Amino acid sequence: MNTPASQPTAAPASGRAARILAVTSGKGGVGKTFVSANLAAALARRGERVLVLDADLGLANLDVVLNLFPKITLHDVFTGKAKLEDAILPAPGGFSVLLAGSGLVEYSRLTSEVRDQLLRIIETVAPRYDRVLLDTGAGISDVVLFAVSLATDVLVVATPEPTSLTDAYATVKVLATQQQRERISLIVNQVGKTGEGRVIRGQLQQVVDRFVSPSLPEGKGPVKLELLGEIPTDKSVREAVQKRQLLLEMLPGCEAAKGIAAIAGKLCES
């Protein structure tokens, strides 16, 4: 039985801190936040205590995806106007969320305050959950890269579009060279046919093998991309997004929902 999202203070059964997974992407519009929210719901269904932290501090939209209207956000915690515990909210799907405020220019740059506050918050919440998902911004800004650096695992979301793949490669390159990441997971969203994700992973791996791994310092690498799964193009996704509902709650039997559930299963096995 899942632990209710409104009771986030219990420590994981193992007594260890949560696995922290940064969900990121090279460009916007690939479904990163959609994946974060629905993956959290799928993990919660498997019995994990899950927290999703909206680490897109300047352009947050996790609240929109979940149809939540928070009175307290990370901005209030950062400025000392509210306690961290009061900002953790239950979300549909049986997980918890820490929401950021949208349009806050001061959080689009990595200041020492942002760095210290984000680090403090993650260190505080990690012992309370089995898994913390960091829904980062898109691209390779300082704020995004710092958020990713706090994670034990990294998941890059991409689509088959050429611009998405180019930006996904750029993200992998930066993570490998700046953070010495040797293992990066990949989800290919909006695939047109079964197996397309495997082909795309292979193409990206070839480019990484040719241009990234040889440039790493001696003793580092090679960089390996692991395909966690693919999510098919599904009209149900658009319907769920427009209704601000989780796909796994609204239409759990659709093909895209099945793809996300399979990804959650693979994560739990790793």
TrEMBL record:
InterPro entries: CobQ/CobB/MinD/ParA_Nub-bd_dom, FlhG, MinD_FleN, P-loop_NTPase, ParA/MinD_ATPase
Keyword annotations from UniProtKB, A to Z: ATP-binding, Nucleotide-binding
Gene3D superfamilies to which the protein is assigned, alphabetical: P-loop containing nucleotide triphosphate hydrolases
Pfam families: CbiA
Residues of the CobQ/CobB/MinD/ParA nucleotide binding domain: 21-245
Official protein name in the record: MinD/ParA family protein
